[in-house]
Amino acid sequence: MSILEIHWMKYVRATGLVLALTALVCGGAITRAQSKIKVDGDYAGTLGPLHLKLHVKTDAAGAITATLDSLDQGALGIPCADFHLDGLSFTFAVPAVGGSYAGSFSADGNTLAGTWKQGQSLPLSFTRDKFVPAVKPSRVDGIWLGTLVAGSKSLRVQIIVKSDATGKEFCTLDSLDQQMFGAECAQVQFNAPNFSFDVPSVHGHWEGKLVDEKNLMGSWSQGSPMALNFVRQLTALMAAPMAPPTYDAAMPPVSAAELQSVLDKDLAEALASGQLAPGTGAGVSIGVVEHGVRKVFSYGAAKPDSIFEIGSITKTFTGLILAQLVEQGKVRFEDPVRTLLPAGTVEKPAGAEITLLDLATQHSGLPRLPTNMSPANPENPYADYDAAKLYAFLTKQGVGKPEKTEFLYSNLGFGLLGQALAVHAGLTYPELLKQEVTAPLGLKDTTVALTAEQQTRFVQGHNPAHRPVAAWDLGALEGAGAIRSTASDMLTYVEANLHPEKLADGNAGPGATMRKALVQQHVLRADAMPGTRIALAWLFETETGNYWHNGGTGGFTSYSFFNPTGDYAAVVLLNTTLGSTGSFADRLGTHISQRLAGKPAISLAK
């Protein structure tokens, strides 16, 4: 996890709805018919997990322009066209992503309700920001830039502070090098010279002093405090424009036997001067199966039997463990997680409480990470987060389930699920993983702790600058991302998911329930991101028919999918973490899926 714990959401995709709206910038004159409402201003809205801002302006001639930003990811530069304001109706198109918006303003212009269409239609409404700025800004109002340093990592942090007409202070935080913009602050307090604020989305806190008109000095806390000083700036730094994705021409559906030769051409530029170029240390192992034909191959610094950290794909294994234990009658989906933990760990809440199914479908309401993480080594941030710390967090947080829960990706939730199932079974998580999944499926290189021989095949991980980094250990949150594996083992795993009916029944034990458990795991149980539903950990794309999950650690990224309708599946394992343009493993995995389906494939050139 990054210093600010602002890890790009694991579901950033190379194509489709989520990336298409990561930060849309819409510009151009709007055809304007008779309209008596004043639409100038800033409007906020959400589309699934994405927080959007719509900025509407009218020039002296009456022409209207607008920009649309996605604050969660900060990529800019996707042009819009065909704007039209007719009375209260407002429409525009985004040709680069094949999207369009149609909505209507309220009579006072304070709300805009409508529909975003990009393959499917989704409701999208905006509310006007009614902020009234102070006539005289406070001494701390303005744009401030600082650098947060921990170990070998350095991040530029920008805050924008403003006060309203009542004197109340507001601010937003940008992590510029992580392309994260507009994180809302809370509890913003300025009692000269003291200044402080929280950033709830990353469980962070800053406090310090306004030393003079140009300098704020203080510390950032996200567990342990780190120095973070700010210098006043005249203008804000913005995200570099992100070009819309380009696509390689479609070809007839590629077979598993043909895929490597196709990828040799599609990856040529990446291998020569891009993500997999000599000198980067990068290597990727790929496994593909299509109509029963298996192929495993590699590029760069990797070999077909290289071992990688698979990160959050671990969650699908934890989901399968749960399905196994349910099929064996040892737990039920509706069991409160509290009842599987050591007695007295956390009190029974007064109302509804978090169940095992809530955790497995990312609908528990728990935050992405616990607030009491204070890593001794930021390069291996989960290593010292043990069961005692997890239970201490739960004691304070409680296990009550919010009245309304929506999809909220939580490493904490899946870590808790893995821990609870292991405690209930009287085993460690690695022991339970072996008993319920890897042994029955014959996955000999899929494990948490490596043997001496396996360690010789464990490839070096790299940060976005292609510098070697330490491996990760997940402590009490192993169920969220601790597994290491090979492309061959992972291909066997996704092939079992693709065809549970082909597994031989075991005579007893976990092997006897594996087929039913896999089928149970694939049942779609809740909504996730736009255009996506969730089973037990696996996400399902309604447009492609793919079940998929990806992962990322400090030095690795991964992507896996299987498509029962097309009878194909693949896995991509890369020894480089995600950077400012997202995950290359995601792009490669999506490219492979598109090649297998015979569709235009997102370019791998950059």
Detailed description of the structure:
The chain has 13 helices and 33 strands. A hairpin with a 4-residue loop joins strand 15 and strand 16 (204-212). Strands 10, 11, 12, 13, 14, 15, 16, 17, 18 and 19 form a 10-stranded antiparallel beta sheet that branches. A 9-stranded mixed beta sheet has the order 1-5-6-7-8-9-2-3-4. It has 606 residues and is an alpha+beta fold. The chain has 3 domains: 16-128, no CATH class; 142-233, Lipocalin (Beta Barrel), CATH 2.40.128.120; 247-602, DD-peptidase/beta-lactamase superfamily (Beta-lactamase, 3-Layer(aba) Sandwich), CATH 3.40.710.
Please provide a brief summary of the model.
The chain is an alpha+beta fold. Strands 10, 11, 12, 13, 14, 15, 16, 17, 18 and 19 form a 10-stranded antiparallel sheet that branches. A 9-stranded mixed sheet has the order 1-5-6-7-8-9-2-3-4.
